Amino acid sequence: MSEDADVIVVGAGLAGLVATYELTRAGRRVVVVDQENEANLGGQAFWSLGGLFLVDSPEQRRMGIKDSAELALADWLGSAGFDREREDHWPRRWAEAYVAFAAGEKRDYLHGLGLRVMPTVGWAERGAGAAAGHGNSVPRFHLTWGTGPEVVRVFREPVLAAAARGLVTFRHRHRVDGLIVENGAAVGVRGTVLAPSEEARGVASGREAAGEFELRAQAVVVTSGGIGGNQELVRRNWPADRLGAAPRSMITGVPAYVDGRMLEITEDAGGSIVNRDRMWHYTEGIRNWDPVWPDHAIRIIPGPSSLWLDATGRRLPVPLFPGHDTLATLKHITATGHDYSWFVLTQDIVEKEFALSGSEQNPDITGKDLKLVLSRARKGAPGPVQAFLDKGEDFVVRRTLAELVDGMNAIAPGPKLDLAQVEREILARDREVDNPYSKDFQLMSVANARAYWPDKLTRVAKPHRLLDPAHGPLIAVRLHLLTRKTLGGLETTLNSQVVRPDGEPFDGLYAAGEVAGFGGGGVHGYNALEGTFLGGCIFSGRAAGRAIARRLG
């Protein structure tokens, strides 16, 4: 099969849509190749909460937040910890460029496409407690009005309009098995036509072959995503020296098609992969009671008040509090020899502080239903949270601590919890609540969060004793480790052009999104600041599309 096109885009996720959008703006003809069916257009981004990392935005200023490009870059570099002379060359340059984009034209670029954000700004990944270290110094998490599907929509619609004009052709159920390289340049792709699939978005599809294909063009853009759906590959690349032994059990935060195949295929063709040991996995995973893909995980996005216990019932050490330092917490949990942990909290905390990741878990914001959004202020847990309280296998709700620990032991895959040990941890914490000041660093963090008035009103519960029945019932949540983001990947220049192992650009070959570590082969370094997944896809996809359009003239 041949195709009359200027550019082939491998992957119909967000980065691929953005690159295609930019190419069609320049009048270029694009073929988009993807192994999944049309229902999956937009890829993993569709399932996201829609958070965007913006710096010194109007929304921040209205909240009284004093942010700047300088502060954001300091936070980014302090979190990234770039320390590899060869592999971090391009990632560092991408980091500087991305923060400038987030502090500059990013908001206007997206606003011009019709994207809007919520008026309040969230404070994600608050860090390890050092001014120069990991974490966001200020709230920067801007939630899209419409969540991930809306981010996808603002690029999908102009791409579909370009398809109607004959500029874009989609080749769904076409799995790329190799890149065609001639005279050192990428000139096309070859692969397998898969049997048609009628599966719904996100559902794992079959891999039965129905034919072969070959496509040629002047440039190829790889936008195939990361490795989070391929636990074998996650474990193969697991950084045991930093995070301890790979967990025996993980649940999966992305669809099965996030399989990492194109990384090896591109490397075999001559592309350079760097920082493949850098990855980002969450520690607050729960099994979805209504799963879409295999081992479907939902992440709790917690406020700061839940008491975090390891599998033996001991409190996690400072500063491993909910919402603070994801990878440090992951390292500690794996060091315990167990691959799960526990939240202990109250009904009042769950009602105010629990949010769930995923567009489908936030139907009010995803559906742009203002009335439903305002209903969150009423007494009671949000509907999706209540559904997990009622149906989730990881939730235990009881009136007394003894009953709670019995319920936890009934579902504990590891050691049985000792009631006296759990009670000691809770009583020690509860003794510190009676005064507005404390030696307990977690309660200090809660007070700090409540000093930010949007958090005080909507996100952080008033401190109270966990064992006070007036705030009950008591709730325990078994937390799994869940796979999510690939922080390393194909090495690329600031034009998203793939680099060869000798440092020279690979003629005709580009990469964007998670397959490129969201730019350069690892723009985040060792740590992510959150709200950067979608933005990284947008920034690197835009760079690829614009660079190819310039090159083709």
TrEMBL record:
One Gene Ontology molecular-function label: steroid dehydrogenase activity, acting on the CH-CH group of donors
Q: Which SUPFAM superfamilies match?
A: FAD/NAD(P)-binding domain
Q: Which UniProt keywords apply?
A: Flavoprotein, Oxidoreductase
According to the entry, every stretch annotated as the FAD-dependent oxidoreductase 2 FAD-binding domain falls at 6-534
Source organism, top-level taxon = Bacteria
KW Repeat (keyword) present: no
Tell me one Pfam family matched here. FAD_binding_2
Q: Does the keyword Oxidoreductase apply?
A: yes
The protein in question is named FAD-binding dehydrogenase
